[in-house]
Amino acid sequence: MKILISSVGTATSVNLIKYFKKLNDYIIGTDINPMGYTAGSMMVDKFFTVPYAVDENYISSIVEIIRNNDIELFIPVNDTEVYIVSKEIDQIPCKCIVPDTATIDLLRDKFECSQRMIKSGIDVPSILECDDMGLVRILRDKVGVGSSGISFFERGIGIKSYDKTTQFIQEKVSGEEYTVDVLSDCDGKPLYIIPRKRIEVKSGVATKVLVDDEKGIIDRVKIILETIKLPGFSNIQFIKDRVGKYWFIEINYRFSGCGAATLATCPGYLDVFKDIVLGKEINTELNHDVRWNSIVTRYYEEFVYNADIS
């Protein structure tokens, strides 16, 4: 299959490139950086530099690459790219599986998404109407991506001021951090729900994880997916506290940064995804080939590009 993968300067894209190449797929990559300035640009079969996703020429650049290279599948990786593509999905002349814009708007609004979880019976860290210095707290932007727009406040330290129209205060919960990699068909039916627990983190990146058959989390993700349709790749974050309670943190509408752990322990993961793309009927059971209780460790690898910078 000829696949276009965006943002090849990210670890997320590198993971996808590496595992699609093992399936002998032909990979074309894009990034805002020129050739040789990212490892991903040297791992693909063909590379193009494109504008930022917010640039007015981004979609037309992607469309031109797809048409000129007979692309069968486009996978936008960066959060902003996925959002922009969802708005212009009718212009994309190949298969591209992303949630609809209304769903992404809900997931980007951390406050509204948390309210939706509460209504679904999912435990969410307490949202505070006013500051409480007796608690460890998080000040969050209502609309944000990942860890951006988040500030932490220890007990006894007050939040001097904040804009209640754009921010909210939430109690910070502590415990074991889980990211759940989800793969669903185009109707949002989950085919994989794979929790992995962070064992080691360096510079904010998980370098050692346990692929963990945590049934309590899997059951909660099933509930979430009954109310929010997430076709294709997504990931959901939880914290399991010291008494075994599961707390919902957020949903990301893309392949995860440490998704390589899932790809390494689920031999059929990308084959199932490609079957979804091709519209094939999939009769496998949920998580049918996951190698549970696997510890996955990661390392860096160097690439050298002989650039002519004269």
Walk me through the structure:
The protein is built from eight helices and 14 strands. 25% of the residues lie in helices and 26% in strands. A six-stranded antiparallel sheet has the order 13-12-9-10-11-14. A four-stranded parallel sheet has the order 3-2-1-4, with helices on one face. The mean pLDDT is 95. With 310 residues, it is of the alpha+beta class.
Q: Indicate the mean pLDDT.
A: 95
Q: Please tell me how large the radius of gyration is.
A: 20 Å
**What's the total helix number?**
8
Major beta sheet, strand line-up: 13-12-9-10-11-14
The residue ranges in which pLDDT falls below 50 over 5 or more consecutive positions are: none
Structural class: alpha+beta
Helix amount, in percent?
Answer: 25-40%
Oligomer: single chain
Which strand-content bin applies to the residues? 25-35%
- What about the largest sheet? 6 strands, antiparallel
Coarse shape: globular
Would you list the SSEs in sequence order as H and E? EHEEHEHHHEEEEEEEHEEHHE
- What is the total tally of β strands? 14
Cα distance, first to last residue?
Answer: 38 Å
